[in-house]
Design a protein that fits this description.
This protein is an alpha/beta fold. The protein folds into two domains: 139 residues, Rossmann fold; 115 residues, 3-Layer(aba) Sandwich (Rossmann fold), CATH 3.40.50. The chain contains eleven helices and twelve strands. It has a four-stranded parallel β-sheet, with helices on both faces. The chain has a four-stranded parallel β-sheet with strand order 10-9-11-12. Strands 1-2 form a two-stranded antiparallel sheet. Helix 5 packs antiparallel against helix 6, helix 6 packs parallel to helix 11 and helix 7 packs across helix 11. The longest helix has 21 residues. The radius of gyration is 30 Å and the shape is globular. It starts with 5 loop residues before the first strand and ends with a helix.
Length: 306
């Protein structure tokens, strides 16, 4: 009868025959399981530079996009990427299909937990409207965050084109851009360029200066912006400043009427007030730098006709 040699270790004594057997069995099992287990592969992506100069690895065709701004949502739907939207903000109201998408909160206070539950593969944000802290936390969770910042007509067109490339809808984006350009090229040529003041807030008075996308709307519609360029694109204007500008037209992009007291006192002598050219306009058209800014240009052009 064969005797088994005993080998000792610290706390036990194991027959060397069984030791070799179990070791061989362990190696076989490990190799078998490793070879049969499915390998997790990273989703293919491409590196794109966003509006704030960051390199972002974006999926080749993202399927679960969260939009954190109404203009982004409008762009996505306009180029045919509505089915790729996983979530939107509480303020994303156009088109009607946007109202059926899951909500992630406001522009400045989106709910990160709600966003993560949607398991997005891309989050689109704006440089001005969305808090950087949310973007940083989403990035820490491994979600690519791409920032846009359209501050002029040309940049709006470029942003539409870029989002088309990110989502796999290049040709649809080109069609949207072509339609916008054609719409503005058909506008009436005005005999003169009226001066325009855009009233964004009453107390304090806030307007849009040269260098903003609103400035481009005024110019393309046939007018010119009375608020000069400065360190702020949306500066606070004091009473004396508005009286000195004395615009021909005042735009009020809001769903509510302006305070009637605003245009009493010194402001009652403004040219725009005396001539009845204080226009309340659709804020969604004028304040969302997306496809419908072309409609804003056409609307303003018709209002400026003598």
């Amino acid at each position: 009868m064969q005797k088994l040699r005993l080998e000792s270790s610290k706390n036990c004594i194991i027959p060397s025959f069984y030791q070799r057997f179990f070791f061989a069995f362990f190696l076989f099992t490990l190799v078998f399981l490793t070879s049969c287990s499915p390998k997790k592969e990273d989703k293919p992506g491409k590196i794109v530079i966003d509006a704030i100069g960051q390199e972002v690895t974006v999926p080749i065709r993202p399927e679960k996009i969260i939009s954190l701004a109404p203009n982004i949502t409008e762009i996505l739907f306009a180029i045919g990427a509505g089915n790729q939207i996983a979530g939107v903000t509480d303020f994303c109201t156009f088109p009607d299909a946007a109202k059926t998408k899951p909500r992630t909160g406001g522009l400045t206070n989106p709910n990160l937990e709600s966003m993560l539950q949607l398991q997005p593969d891309l989050i689109l944000v704006t440089a001005d409207g969305n808090p950087k802290a949310i973007s940083d936390r989403a990035k820490s969770a491994g979600i690519p965050v791409f920032t846009i910042n359209p501050s002029s007509w040309d940049q709006i067109l470029a942003t539409i084109q870029l989002i088309g490339e990110l989502t796999g809808h290049e040709s649809q984006a080109d069609s949207v851009i072509k339609s916008m350009i054609e719409k503005t090229e058909k506008l009436s040529i005005l005999p003169s360029k009226p001066s325009i003041f855009t009233l964004l807030n009453e107390k304090p008075l806030i307007s849009a200066a040269k260098g903003s996308f609103l400035d481009d709307i005024l110019e393309k519609a046939g007018g010119f912006n009375v608020v000069p360029s400065g360190p702020e694109r949306y500066p606070v204007i004091n009473q004396e400043g508005l009286l000195k500008m004395n615009p021909d037209v005042i735009l009020w992009p809001s769903e509510d009427d302006p305070d009637p007291e605003l245009f009493k006192g010194p402001f009652k002598n403004l040219k725009a007030v005396k001539s009845g050219k204080v226009f309340k306009v659709n804020p969604d058209l004028y304040l969302r730098p997306g496809p419908r800014v072309a409609d804003a240009v056409a609307d303003l052009n018709s209002r400026l006709k003598p």
